[in-house]
Amino acid sequence: MYYLTYRPKTIGEIDNIEPRETIKKILASGTLPHAFLFVGQKGTGKTSTARIFAKAVNCLSNSFSKSPQPSQHPQQPQTPHNIEPCNHCSNCKSIDLSSFPDVLELDAASNRGINEVKELIKESSYLPMAGRFRVFIIDEAHMITSDGFNALLKTLEEPPSTVIFILATTNVEKLPKTIQSRCIPIEFGRAKESEIVHMLKRIAAHAKLSITDEVYGLIASHSDSSFRDGAKLLEELVMLGKTDIDAAQSHIGLRSKNNLLVILGKQTVIEALSWIEEFSKSGGGCKTLIEELLHELHDDLLALNKIGPLSRKTTLSLLEIIILMKLLQEAYSNLRSSPIETIPLEIAIVEFYNKRSVH
Ligand SMILES: Nc1ncnc2c1ncn2[C@@H]1O[C@H](COP(=O)(O)OP(=O)(O)O)[C@@H](O)[C@H]1O
Ligand SMILES: [Mg+2]
Ligand SMILES: [Zn+2]
Q1: pLDDT the model gives residue 258
Q2: How many Cα atoms sit within 13 Å of 116 on the Cβ side?
Q3: Which residue among 31, 59, 96, 290 has the highest number of C-beta atoms inside a 10 angstrom radius?
């Protein structure tokens, strides 16, 4: 799979500019912080970067291999020149295979309690076995319980000099301030379209694909600001042989059925109607579309009344949802008697815009 095969393996391959440059500077300075906080939404490279970092400081053939053990000379700053992991030495290789004894990954979503945290703290008191640093990567760090955080706090304050913690989270606001303030924050944010294009081109060069800039742009704008989603969408289009712009556009159009709700919330009636035209031209059926829209709206209705989880941020108000549901129900029952399949839906949409402007 592209997103795994072409996961960045060196600092230079990290496609988001800010975290890449920050990590570079920190590694080149030679004085390593003992705790990081990687913040950003899913698929922005937090885990990949944490592994690259762990390799860089434990690699047997870059500059770090030549500097003295940190435990012996904790104060002495070094200025490493070659900070990239080589990806070939035994340390780099076993970190890639997740079999290196000094790099420990913990998913806080499933190991969130005090006992797991205590176990981790105990582990952090051991000297490295095969590398220079023990690196603890704690994914979804915001899931740790408050007892767990309390236990971790002291260790984060004064960890052994051979230990580096990397906390990764999608929800930084759920992390206690006391924990945040002990870590160096690195913002992964959301992947920018230009950065996703950069990644797509990197993959295409490796995989020997020839794709136009227009298609790269289209993929990037439908990737939900995630490198992972971008790589997956590229692979999907390649597998289906739909990498020219027309084929890619109609494929992507079909995938994003529920985009219509977003358009209804934010854009004009003309845009909504042309979306329907486009949808139907590329082979989409109105019956399933209306069914799916009603399901979505039903979920939103329950969520706005606090009965169900809010899966998707709705841009429609409660009143608009109700108007739209009534109109779509009506359109649904008129489908069979309509000579042109899209007419009932189009009428519903036009009426929705009219009714909404009255309220
Ligand atoms: N900065 C990046 N540059 C290139 N590809 C990336 C980047 N970040 C993520 N990816 C792609 O997305 C996938 C998931 O990345 P991952 O590091 O697991 O993200 P996160 O931990 O933030 O969810 C990777 O396998 C890789 O293919
Ligand atoms: Mg991750
Ligand atoms: Zn190496």
Answers
A1: 53
A2: 19
A3: 59
In this structure, how many other beta carbons lie within 10 angstroms of the beta carbon of residue 59?
24
User: How far apart are the CA of 190 and the centre of ligand 1, in A?
Assistant: 11
User: Which of 167, 228, 235 to mutate to test ligand 1, by most ligand atoms within 8 A of the CB atom?
Assistant: 228
Please answer whether residues 256 and 289 qualify as being in contact, where contact means their C-beta atoms are separated by less than 8 angstroms: no
Mean pLDDT within 27-34: 90
> For the segment 101-110, what is each residue's pLDDT rounded down to a tens digit?
999 999 988 8
Ion ligand 2: residues, CB < 5 A: 47
Find the ligand nearest to 108 CA.
Answer: 2
Q: Is the pLDDT assigned to residue 76 strictly greater than 50?
A: no
DSSP letters of 240-282?
TT--SHHHHHHHHHHHTTTHHHHHHHHS-HHHHHHHHHHHHHT
Q: What percent of the chain has a predicted confidence (pLDDT) above 90? A: 68
Ligand 1 site: residues with CB under 6 angstroms? Answer: 3-4, 6-8, 14-16, 40, 42-48, 199, 227-228, 231
If you measure from the C-alpha of residue 40 to the centroid of ligand 2, how many angstroms do you get, rounded to a whole number?
Answer: 10
Domains and CATH numbers, the chain: 2-189 (3.40.50.300), 192-256 (1.10.8), 258-359 (1.20.272)
Residue 270 neighbours by CB distance under 10 Å = 9
Please tell me the pTM assigned to this model.
0.73
